[in-house]
Design brief:
Elements lengths: L2 E5 L2 E4 L4 E8 L7 E7 L6 E6 L5 E3 L7 E6 L4 E6 L8 E9 L3 E2 L7 E6 L1
Parallel strand pairs: 2-11
Antiparallel strand pairs: 1-3, 3-8, 4-5, 4-9, 5-6, 7-8, 9-10, 9-11
């Protein structure tokens, strides 16, 4: 059973920064790709960023140059550093794990709310 626990959200002013954390348990974390997703109010969940076991990263166009995904295998934790935040970044942020033969995990964590004020 995989468990994903997001934290670090809160209220941030436009132009500010925030770092989110995702603690992972119940799987061999270091071998898997991890990802961040977000769901703005009234909209569907969308992809933000991924990081592979080898450290390769991908980003959605909307956050390129502003967000950075990283991982600490010793702590079983994935991070999302968010800089130059915009009101459009307001959403509930979720992490997830990608496993070969299974894809993204079907059960999402509680997420963490990020609100960017103008």
């Amino acid at each position: 059973q995989v468990q994903l626990v997001e934290s670090g959200g809160g209220l941030v002013q436009a132009g500010g920064s925030r770092r989110l954390s995702c603690a992972v348990s119940g799987t061999i974390f270091s071998l898997n790709t991890m990802g961040w997703f977000r769901q703005p109010p009234g909209k569907q969940r969308e992809f933000i960023a991924t990081i592979t076991a080898g450290g390769s990263t991908t980003y959605a166009d909307s956050v390129k140059g502003r967000f950075t995904i990283s991982r600490d295998n010793a702590k079983n934790t994935v991070y999302l550093q968010m800089n130059s935040l915009k009101p459009e970044d307001t959403a509930v942020y979720y992490c997830n794990i990608y496993r070969p033969g299974a894809g993204w995990y079907d059960y999402w964590g509680q997420g963490t709310q990020v609100t960017v004020s103008s």
